[in-house]
Write a structure and sequence with these properties.
Blueprint lengths: L4 H10 L6 H22 L30 H6 L4 E2 L2 E2 L7
Antiparallel strand pairs: 1-2
Length: 95
């Protein structure tokens, strides 16, 4: 499977990429190498291979998620440019 310049230019347009002539030829060669490699992978017999659920046997050790107040309400409002008693004042975003 190989790609021609028109296909590469179409893909570049969709991806909003611009290449000069030398980079275009280099990208075309690289893209064809990638497609050839994928074609080689496609030819492999994977009937007896179990699908992977996880790439590693490592298990994350996470701390329990416990809610806690690290900043008081007043401390949070202290640096606000505009506030109204207990609330931040922000510009209106909906019309």
């Amino acid at each position: 499977m190989s790609t021609d310049l028109n296909t590469l230019r179409g893909l570049a347009h969709l991806a909003r990429l611009e290449f000069d002539d030398t980079k275009e030829q280099q990208m075309l060669g690289d893209l064809n190498k990638i497609l050839d490699w994928v074609d080689q992978l496609r030819q492999l017999n994977t009937d007896d291979v179990e699908p992977l659920v996880h790439l590693s046997q490592e298990i994350n050790v996470l701390r329990p998620d416990e809610a806690q107040n690290t900043v008081s309400h007043q401390a949070g409002l202290s640096n606000a440019p505009r506030k109204d008693s207990d609330y931040f004042r922000v510009p209106k975003v909906l019309e």
